[in-house]
Amino acid sequence: MKNIFLACSLFLCTLAASNPVETGHARASLITNLQDSQQESFYVGVRLEMQEGWHTYWENPGDSGSPFEANWITDQGIIVENVQWPTPVTIPYPPLMTFGYEGDVVFPFKIFRAVDSNLTQINVELDFLICADICIPERASLSLDLSSATPNPLLDTAIAKLPTDFMQTQSFIDGENLKTRFQSTRAVETAYLFPRQDDLFVYMPSQELVQLSEDTYEISVPVLNADMGFFSGVLSINGEGFQVEEELQSVSNMSLWQALLFALIGGLILNLMPCVFPVISLKVLSFVSMGGDDNTKIRNHALSFVGGVMSTFLSIATALIIIRSTGSMIGWGYQLQSPVVVGILTLIMLGIGLILLTNINFAAGLTTMGSSVQSRNDYSGSFFTGVLAVVVASPCTAPFMGAAIGYALLQPSFATLPIFLALGLGFAGPYLILALKPEWISALPKPGAWMETLKQFFAFPMIATALWLMWVFMVQTSGDALILLLILGLMLGIAIWMIATFKGRWKWIGLVVTLLVAVQIFNTLPENTNELEVDASAEKWSLAIESDLQAQNQAYLINFTAAWCITCQTNEKTAFARDRVKEYLKDQGITYVKADWTNRNEDIAIGLARYERTGIPLYIFWKPGMHGSKILPAVLTEDLLIKSMQ
Amino acid sequence: MKLFLNLLITLSITTASYAAEIKLQNPATNFQAPNFSVINSYGQMIKLTDFAGTPVILEWTNHECPYVARHYNENNMQRVQKIAQDAGIVWLSIISSTPGDQGHVNPDKANALTASRGARPSHVLLDESGKVGMLYGAKTTPHMYMIDANGILRYKGAIDDIGRGMQFFNAAFEDATNYVSSQVNDLIAKKSLAIDVTTAYGCSVKYNYD
To answer: For residue range A95-133, what is the model confidence (pLDDT) as tens digits?
Structure first.
C-alpha cells in the first residue's frame, strides 16, 4: 500500500492502480452497475468505506474542509459526467459546522459511451480530505476493468437515494433568516437545508422547523447576506434529500430614507383616494366655515385633527408590531378581513350619513363623534375626525404607499414606527400647513348657505361607502348575516333619531334599550368567513403558480385583490374588466391569475411578502425573456395596464 | 393573554439559549475590529489596542493542519510575513486549538516552531479558550484578518485564491493571488480593500466543543 501512495505522489498512479485501495483511514474502490456490454449509459461509483469517526465532505463542506476531486482517465469515446452528490449529513464541531458523509458512502458518476467504443479499463485519481478531529489529505488511484466487472447492487441503492427530485419551495427573507416553506404529506421529524453556495448562510447545528398546517412546513436558515438573489441546495427531510433552487424576488433594494419619502408622498396622495375623500371633504368644509374666525382657533382645530391622525397611525403601527411579534403574517387593510370590523365600519359610515342628511345636532345630545357637526370650541371633534379619516382610509392604498408599508412591516421594528409616522405626516400634511399658516384659509370660498347643501350632499358618498362595505360583508359572510347588519343599521338610525328628538330621562331610557338590543344582535354576527366564489375567468392563485408558469414559459398577469380593497375594485372596473384588456390577454396568450385576499389567507400574505408587500393592490406581470417579474402600478387604467405589459 | 404568554415564552427561550450557546461572531469589514487581550508565547498579555497606530495582520494557525503545513513547508507564509514585516505591519499568529487537540502547543513549543520554520510573527498568541477565535469568527487554519492603523477591520478570509478543494495540494503558490500580500499597500493607506471578504479554506479551528 505504501508503494502505491508513493507512486501516486509522483503522479504516476495509472500504472500502479488497483481496486480497492487502502488510503490510510478509508478503503476506496470503484464499482459499476453495467449489466451488458451494449449499454450506452451506466454508472460507475467511487466507494469510500471510512473508518469509524472519520468523514469526508459534500460539495459545500460547510465551515471548513474540502470536497474530493476525481480525475478520470478513460479511453476515447467514454465520457464521465460530474459526480452526483448523495444527500449529506451535518457533522458538527461546535461552534463550527461541516457537511459531509460518514461510514460507507458511494459517489455515483454517470458514464456515456459511444457505441463503437471499447469497454476497457476505466481509471480515476481520487484526492480527498478525510477528517476526524484532524484532517488528512488522502489519495487513491483506482481502476476498474469494465469488460469483466460485475454489477454491484450497492451502486443502484446509492443512485436510488440520490437527491434528484426537485422540491417546490417558497422562500423569503425575514429579517436575519431565510424562511423556506415546503410541503410534505409525510410527517417531518427532521429537516435541514444544506446550502450549495458559500458565504450566504450561517451554518447552524439545527434549523428551526415549524409546522404551519397539516402538510406545510417552514424552515429558518440564518443568513449572512440578506441580499441573495438566488439560492440552491439540498433539503434533507427525514434524511431523504431533495433539490431546492429558488430565485428570491424580495431583495431589499429600498433604503429607510426612500421608504420614509415614499410613505410621506403616499400619505399625501391617500387624501385623494375614494374611501377617504368624503371624510376629508367634510373637514375642509368645517375649515371653510371657520373663515371668519381667529387664527388661533383655526390652528388649534387643524392641530387637533393632525393629532388625531398621528395617534391613530401610531396605534396601528404599535398593534401591527405586537401582532407581528407573535409570528403572524399581517398587512395593511388586514383588519377588513374580519367581518366584525367591516360591520362596525359600515355602521359608522351609515351613522355619519344619517347625521349629515338629517342635519340634527348630534353633538348637543352625545359627545361629539368625529362628525362635522361639532361645537365650535370642542377640539376633540377635530381630533376624532382625524381618527375617523385614518380608520376609513384603511381599505385604500395610494401609489407609493404599498412599497413603503411593505418595507415597514418586513423590516425590524425600529423601522416600522418612523414609516407609519411619515405616512401620517403625509396624510395630515395639508392640515399641518394650515396650522402653520391659518391665514391661508381665506383663499378658500367664503362660507355661506351652499355649505349646508353640500354637507347634506356628502351624506351620499358616506352611504355609498356603507353600501360597498355591506357588499364586502356579504362576500365574507352570507345574505342572512347581511340582514342582521342592516337591522343593526336600523337600530342605529332609531338611536340617532332619539338623541336628536327626545329630551331628559326618556332619551336615555330609549337609548339604553336600543343599545341592549343592538349588542344582542351584534353578538350573533358571524366571526367566520365563508368560502369565496371563484372567478371563472381567472386562474386560481397558489404559492407555486409563478414558478410553475415560468417553468412552462407561460406569460402571466397576477391580480392580488380583495373585496374590501377599494383601490383594487376601482382598478377592476377601470382596467381589468375592460374588453380591450380581456382581448389583449387572450391575444397574447397571457394567463390571468387572481389572488383573492378578501378573507384571511396566510399563503397570499407570503406571496405578497415575496414582493416586499403586505397590502394590496399588487399586480405582477411576467413574460418569457424577462429576467424577473415586474410590479405594475397600483393605480391602473386600461391604457396603462396594456402598455405596461408590452 | 395568549399573546402575553407567547411573548413570555419566547423571551425565556431566547435567554436560555443564549446562556448555553457557543457562538462564532461575524465582525464586519470596514468597521472597528473587536479588541481582545490574550497571552503570548512569552507569557505577556497582548491587547489589540497595544498596536494602535500600526496596521495588524491576524493569522489563525495550527502547525499540524495539512493546509498550514504546506504554506509553511513551501515558505509561502514566511514570504507574506516578511512583506508585512518590511512594511512595518504587526503580525499576530493565533493558535485557538484547545489543550489536547491538534495544533495546541505550550509556549516553548510555539517558540521552537517559529525558530525552526523561519517564521516572522511579531507575537504568537495562545488562545486556548478559543475566545479570540470566536470573537473574530475564525473558522479555518489558515484564516486571515487585516486591520488598519485606525483599528478598522479591512479584510477577513482566505490567504489566497486557491480556495477549497483538493486542488490546494497540487496548485502552485506562485500562480495564486495572495489576498494578504497583494493588498498590503492599501491596508497601510487605510483604504477599504478591493477584496475584503473571501471564504477561508483549510482545517477547522480546533475549538473546545466537548
So the answer is: 889 999 999 999 999 998 887 777 788 899 999 999 988
Task: Provide the Cα torsion B41, B46, B48, B53; round to 10°.
Answer: -100
pLDDT band at B4 (very low <50, low <70, confident <90, very high): very low
Taking an 8 Å cut-off on Cβ atoms, the answer to whether A96 and B22 are in contact is no
Domain regions of chain A by residue span: 2-160, 170-247, 256-523, 539-644
**Cell 397600483, residue located:** A634
Indicate yes or no: CB of A66 within 8 angstroms of CB of B168. Answer: yes
The percentage of chain A sitting over the pLDDT mark of 90, rounded to a whole number, equals: 19
Query: A86, A59 in Cβ contact below 8 A?
Result: no
Q: Is the pLDDT of residue A373 over 50?
A: no
Cell of A465: 361607502
Return the CATH number of the domain spanning residue range A170-247: 2.60.40
Sequence spans of domains, chain B: 24-204
* CATH for A539-644 (3.90.1570.30, 3.40.30.10, 3.40.50.970, 3.40.50.300): 3.40.30.10
The residue of A48, A68, A129 whose CB has the most chain B CBs within 10 angstroms, and thus the best one to mutate to test that interface, is: A129
Pick the residue of A59, A66, A196, A207 with the most B CBs within 10 A to test the interface with B by mutation.
Answer: A66
Q: Is the pLDDT of residue B22 over 70?
A: no
Query: Do A69 and B167 form a contact (C-beta atoms < 8 A)?
Result: yes
**ipTM value for the complex:** 0.81
Q: Name the band, by pLDDT with cuts 50, 70 and 90, for residue A533.
A: low
CB atoms B23 and A95 under 8 Å: yes
pLDDT at A592 over 70: yes
Cell of A263: 410613505
User: At CB < 8 Å, which residues of chain B contact A?
Assistant: 3, 6-7, 10, 22-24, 26, 64-66, 101-102, 134, 139-140, 164-170, 197, 199, 201-207, 209
Residue A110, SS3 per DSSP: strand
Average pLDDT score over residue span A349-378? 59
**Are B203 and A128 a contacting pair at CB < 8 A?**
no
* 8 Å CB contact of B204 and A128: no
pLDDT at A265 over 50: yes
Chain A interface test: which of B3, B9, B203 (most A C-beta within 10 Å)? B203
Handedness of CA A6, A10, A11, A12 (dihedral sign): negative
What number does CATH give the domain A2-160? Answer: 2.60.40.1250
Q: Pairing state of beta strands A208-211 and A216-222?
A: antiparallel
CATH superfamily of B24-204: Glutaredoxin (3.40.30.10)
| Chain A residues whose C-beta sits inside 8 Å of any chain B C-beta | 61, 63-69, 92-96, 98, 127-129, 131, 133-137, 198-199, 202, 224, 322, 325-326
The phi, psi pair for A216, rounded to 5°, reads -110, 130
Q: How does strand A618-622 pair with strand A630-632?
A: antiparallel
Q: Which residue of A has its CA nearest to B201?
A: A64
pLDDT at A16 over 70: no
Q: Across the interface, which of A69, A224, A325 has its CB nearest the CB of B7?
A: A325
Distances (CA, A) of A154 to A234, A237, B10: 22, 22, 47
